[in-house]
Amino acid sequence: MPIIWIGFAVFVALLLFLDLFVLNAKDHVPRTREALGQTGLWMTIGIGFCGFIYLAYSNGWVESDLPAHTAMINYLTGYLVELSLSMDNVFVIAVIFGYFQVPAKYQHRVLFWGILGAVFFRLAMILAGVYLLEQFDWMFYVFGLLLLFSAYKMVGKGEEVHPSENPVIKLVKRIVPVTHDYHGHDFWVRHAGKLHATPLFVALVMVETTDVIFAIDSIPAILGITTDSFLVFSSNILAVLGLRALYFVLSSMIDKFGLLKYSLALILTFVGIKLMLHEVWHPEEWVSLVVIFVTLTGGVILSLLQPTPAEPHPHDPTKIKEPTEVPDI
């Protein structure tokens, strides 16, 4: 494995250590100010990584023919795409936590381990996607159609989350017994000499499978920007690492971003069309960056200008306290 991949893995491990054992060493509900500060920190790291990308590609640390400035623009565009699509993921996670009545102070722990698993799943999916695009030209059309279909679903009625009907959840229940109540922040407990999963573990599995489903949209979207595996992986992972803090910023304001899904659908449509026209349309790298930035910014601004609903969203995670009733899973 090239040294730059090993170095990036160590860098991500250090960031995860910082997040779990320094910034969130104790189970607590991050206040809005704290969540905003951490979101700013993760975004600074993600955007600041552009400087490293420029150095890496200008000094030949990565085996690539891309000019350094092109690599930097592609990374930033991919980062912005993943960050924007993560916003939609935040809303689904809020519904999951609301269904399982996960105490607010344990939600960060679920997100941390869920995203840790996402790192490995996404690496496998990215490498597979790059391989398919390099070996089979028709895969550009498959990914393009996939993104167009995802855009259509996003502006439709939307997909409801039904944890009790999730086949993965049913499989977990068949393999291991599940307790009916929470045991602090533990995912596993021993009861009557037998190992039991807690509802917190079931919520983790649900978040993990949801992330894989979202990655089916987000990874082809970034592959529509570049097929350089290091750029795709680094932009994807650094955007996902900030999802935990972003979740606590956005989850209590879900109803304020009602128009954002249309911006995300337009982004998916743009990238999908770009993939399908890859043989005849080759816009400059900065064009994709500008289109995605303007579309996302416009969606956020228009959403904030909309009147706020009188009643708060029923799945505001900051309102879930202990003790709590756990639904039948």
Automatic annotation (TrEMBL):
<keyword id="KW-0812">Transmembrane</keyword>
<feature type="transmembrane region" description="Helical">
    <location>
        <begin position="111"/>
        <end position="132"/>
    </location>
</feature>
<dbReference type="InterPro" id="IPR005496">
    <property type="entry name" value="Integral_membrane_TerC"/>
</dbReference>
<feature type="region of interest" description="Disordered">
    <location>
        <begin position="307"/>
        <end position="329"/>
    </location>
</feature>
<dbReference type="InterPro" id="IPR022369">
    <property type="entry name" value="Integral_membrane_TerC_rswitch"/>
</dbReference>
<comment type="similarity">
    <text>Belongs to the TerC family.</text>
</comment>
<keyword id="KW-0472">Membrane</keyword>
<feature type="transmembrane region" description="Helical">
    <location>
        <begin position="6"/>
        <end position="23"/>
    </location>
</feature>
<dbReference type="GO" id="GO:0016020">
    <property type="term" value="C:membrane"/>
</dbReference>
<dbReference type="Pfam" id="PF03741">
    <property type="entry name" value="TerC"/>
</dbReference>
<feature type="compositionally biased region" description="Basic and acidic residues">
    <location>
        <begin position="312"/>
        <end position="329"/>
    </location>
</feature>
<feature type="transmembrane region" description="Helical">
    <location>
        <begin position="229"/>
        <end position="250"/>
    </location>
</feature>
<feature type="transmembrane region" description="Helical">
    <location>
        <begin position="77"/>
        <end position="99"/>
    </location>
</feature>
<feature type="transmembrane region" description="Helical">
    <location>
        <begin position="138"/>
        <end position="155"/>
    </location>
</feature>
<feature type="transmembrane region" description="Helical">
    <location>
        <begin position="35"/>
        <end position="57"/>
    </location>
</feature>
<feature type="transmembrane region" description="Helical">
    <location>
        <begin position="262"/>
        <end position="280"/>
    </location>
</feature>
<feature type="transmembrane region" description="Helical">
    <location>
        <begin position="200"/>
        <end position="223"/>
    </location>
</feature>
<protein>
    <submittedName>
        <fullName>Tellurite resistance protein TerC</fullName>
    </submittedName>
</protein>
<feature type="transmembrane region" description="Helical">
    <location>
        <begin position="286"/>
        <end position="305"/>
    </location>
</feature>
<keyword id="KW-1133">Transmembrane helix</keyword>
